[in-house]
Write a structure and sequence with these properties.
Elements lengths: L20 H10 L5 H5 L5 E4 L14 E16 L3 E9 L4 E7 L2 H7 L5 E10 L5 E4 L2 E4 L12 E4 L8 H15 L9 H7 L4 H9 L4 H32 L33 H8 L6 H15 L5 E6 L5 H14 L3 E5 L3 H15 L6 E4 L5 H13 L4 E4 L13 E7 L6 H8 L7 E6 L5 H7 L4 E5 L10 E5 L4 H13 L3 E5 L7 H19 L5 E4 L5 H12 L5 E4 L12 E7 L6 H8 L10 E5 L5 H12 L3 H12 L1 H4 L19 H17 L9 H14 L6
Parallel strand pairs: 4-6, 9-14, 9-15, 10-12, 10-13, 11-12, 13-14, 16-21, 17-19, 17-20, 18-19, 20-21
Antiparallel strand pairs: 1-8, 2-3, 2-5, 3-4, 5-6, 5-7
The chain binds adenosine-5'-diphosphate and magnesium ion.
The site of magnesium ion has 5 residues, from helix 10.
């Protein structure tokens, strides 16, 4: 993290900090703190307010308090299961409080090491014998000799790892602030600090470690969060600028109609364009429904991008069922009508097949040829499909990652669409793009609603379109949370819907990530439902261990209503579209994450019928209860995503392990959304003033983001 050069005082080794020394340095190394600069940027996780410590007689149950007192007695008592309960009595002149720790024998050893005063922090409650008690408090010895531990103030509490005492970090930070904070160059240019009314970095570092008041600490934190977002946004915006400088394809969309200059090979099809119609006319002709306002807006944005000479890099976000496929079809139609090929890459074979079926239905009447390329095809078929793609006979190629395999070459690829992109690695996206001669336009579609703060961080270099409207006539899905005991009633309710002519999904519990184990669970559930619950109905089974043809056949039968119930693993999570299926039962729903539940639920509610999602789950934890409750409460994917972000943190949400850019030092994506927006605006203003950051006042930024670029390089489409 250290950006300092050897001559730089900030690069000074931590062992030279006053009160640290070689032994202390070894402890600090455990926290990854090597230089003074590292220490300055290692922030407290909270503060202990020692300014007005309450006398013990003032404590009341329900208070969260920091207290000081003499340790008078430490007891260790064995309890059930070979564990121990430690209790210590803390006393001052006014009263007493009992501190307890559950099964942490090392606490007892540490408490017995010496006599003296300690500081403890925790929640006060009423103990068994009506005495005041703090369970599992944080605590530390008071060392009146220690200068860094100057007493009656807000004292920083640092994140630690095992064996590293609070005191050593405090001492290091204290001396780093005192002797080195002033040498920290300010990453924010003076003009920006003035505009945004932000304090200098030295003051902020000082207030973060040794705040005068919490108000000042917050002001300091605000500025540092701003800085962190600002630098990240600069990186992303610079990348975006660079991408825009590249030369791509300019699709002559607005000139389409009437006098098209077209290669007869690709255009032997009759089209409304031949009668002088516009591309929009042809879309209206092609689709069986009218696009929603949101779809039209997004299609317009895409077409405008395609017409520009620079390569398109656009992310389309739309909740499940918002109609992204139709939007992709409009983009692909534009590419084909301009004389190019388009490719659509989907993450699973089921999904690729389904896309191929849907797109054939749309495009074949227009004389546009759609071809499917998936891994499970025989070598002969694959070779044939690859050949047709290379000659340009296949104008729209749909497939899985098989599309990007060696053998496949395109005649003239102009547009690459990637569906459900979070499931693909960056490398695979790049590979698809590289199938083209030159720079094709890239459209990335995702159904995982990503909170805006995350989008801006992860995909800040992509242009964003949001389909924020569902097709008309959809009735919101009704979601119910039922306990395992209610199963008979649930089964009865499903039967009633099937009697009315609907179809149902049963999703089996996800016991493990292992596909074999999951397949077994699905088989068990299928067996039980077929033998014990619905012997008279037609049930099908779908899981990841089945062969491609088998899966395809089952899906085809379910689509054709030859099956009433489809029992499945999460393989149906993505993209499956059977409008007559109006109820989904998710067994042991507490085992699924929020966005997964939301994706699963998106398989129903696709037709005009009232649809239902039934979550069968015990509330095994607060977390599980919270997930069930939010699912019942809302079908809004963005709200669910925000909630998910709160529960799980950003790394998991993005569905990417390559979340280097999300290791934010101080900013919090859940709570600092507004600052992120402000920082983004500031980054844009900065680049307006100084597009290459070549002014003197921006030199430091340029250095700083050179490092960050490498860290974010992994996670964006380049
Ligand atoms: P997703 O965004 O989840 O990929 P799809 O593209 O699968 O959504 O569309 C969901 C369903 O809505 C499909 O059955 C599709 O035919 C239908 N649909 C899409 N757009 C419209 C529209 N404008 N009017 C009516 N139905 C639509
Ligand atoms: Mg889709």
């Amino acid at each position: 993290m250290s950006s300092a050069r050897p001559s730089d005082p900030l690069a000074t080794d931590v062992q030279f900090l006053k009160g640290v020394g070689p032994k202390g340095a070894m402890l600090l190394h455990k926290l990854g703190l090597k230089s003074v600069e590292d220490v300055l940027w290692h922030f407290p996780r909270r503060y202990q307010d020692r300014r007005n410590l309450p006398p013990l007689s003032m404590l009341r149950p329900g208070m969260e308090a920091t207290v000081r007192g003499e340790l008078v007695e430490v007891k260790t008592r064995p309890i059930r299961g070979g564990r121990v309960l430690i209790s210590a009595t803390l006393a001052d002149r006014t009263g007493e409080v009992t501190l307890t720790w559950f099964n942490q024998p090392w606490v007892a050893r540490e408490l017995n090491r010496q006599r003296g005063e300690i500081i403890a922090f925790g929640m006060v409650k009423e103990g068994l014998r009506h005495q005041l008690e703090m369970a599992g408090p944080e605590w530390e010895w008071i060392d009146p000799e220690d200068e860094a531990d100057d007493f009656a103030r807000l004292v920083p509490v640092y994140p630690l790892s095992e064996g590293v005492p609070q005191a050593i970090v405090r001492r290091a930070a204290h001396s780093a602030v005192a002797y080195f904070a002033e040498s920290m160059p300010d990453a924010l240019p003076a003009w920006l600090r003035k505009e945004e009314r932000l304090r200098g970095v030295a003051w902020c570092l000082q207030q973060m470690h040794l705040p005068d008041t919490l108000k000042e600490q917050q002001e300091a934190r605000r500025r540092l969060v701003f800085e962190e977002f600002y630098l990240l946004q600069l990186v992303l915006q610079l990348k975006r600028q660079e991408a825009h400088k590249e030369v791509g394809i300019s699709f002559p969309i607005s000139q389409l109609g009437g006098n098209r200059a077209a290669s007869p090979h690709l255009f032997d099809a009759p089209s409304v364009l031949d009668e002088g119609g516009t591309l929009a006319d042809e879309v209206a002709h092609m689709l069986p429904f009218e696009l929603t306002g949101a779809q039209k807006r997004v299609v317009q944005e895409i077409w405008e991008d395609m017409e520009r000479p620079m390569p398109m890099n656009r992310l389309v976000q739309g909740d499940v069922g918002s109609g992204k496929t139709a939007v992709a079809a409009c983009a692909m139609l534009a590419a084909v009508r301009c004389g190019y090929q388009a490719a659509l890459m989907a993450p699973t074979e089921i999904l690729a097949e389904q896309h191929a079926i849907n797109l054939k239905r749309l495009f074949e009447p227009l004389g546009i040829r759609v071809g499917l390329i998936v891994g499970k095809q025989t070598a002969a078929i694959k070779r044939r499909q690859a050949q047709l793609t290379q000659t340009g006979d296949i104008q729209i190629a749909v497939g899985t990652h098989a599309l990007i395999q060696e053998g496949v070459k395109f005649h003239r690829l102009g547009l690459a669409v990637v569906d459900e992109q979070h499931r693909f690695g960056v490398r695979q996206r790049l590979a698809l793009r590289n199938k083209a001669v030159g720079n094709p336009d890239v459209l990335v579609m995702t159904a995982t609603p990503i909170p805006r703060t995350l989008t801006m961080t992860l995909y800040g270099d992509l242009d964003l379109s949001v389909i924020d409207e569902l097709p008309p006539g959809r009735k919101p899905i009704k979601t119910h949370w039922k306990r395992p005991n209610d199963r008979p009633a649930v089964y009865q309710a499903v039967r009633k819907l099937i009697d009315e002519g609907r179809q149902a999904y049963f999703v089996c519990p996800m016991i493990s990530e292992n596909e074999k184990v999951q397949a077994q669970a699905a088989q068990d559930l299928h067996y039980r439902l077929e033998k014990e619950v619905y012997p008279d109905l037609r049930l099908g089974l779908l899981h990841g261990q089945m062969k491609g043809v088998e899966k395809e056949e089952i899906m085809a039968r379910f689509r054709a209503h030859e099956l009433d119930i489809l029992v499945s693993t999460v393989v149906i999570e993505v993209g499956v579209d059977v409008p007559n299926a109006s109820v989904m039962v998710i067994e042991d729903a507490n085992r699924f994450g929020l966005s997964q539940l939301h994706q699963l639920r998106g398989r129903v509610g696709r037709g005009g019928h009232q649809s239902y999602c039934i979550l069968v789950a015990d509330a095994t934890s607060d977390d599980a209860r919270e997930r069930m409750e939010i699912m019942v409460e809302t079908t809004d994917g963005f709200r669910i995503a925000e909630k998910d972000l709160q529960i799980r943190g950003p790394g998991d949400i993005a569905g990417t392990r390559q979340s280097g850019a999300l290791d934010l030092r101080i900013a919090n994506l859940v709570t600092d959304g507004r600052l992120l927006e402000e920082a983004r605006q500031a980054a844009l203003r900065t680049l307006e003033r100084d597009p290459a950051l070549s002014l003197d006042e921006h030199v430091y930024i340029l250095n700083k983001i050179a490092q960050q670029r490498d860290e974010t390089a992994l996670i964006t489409v380049t």
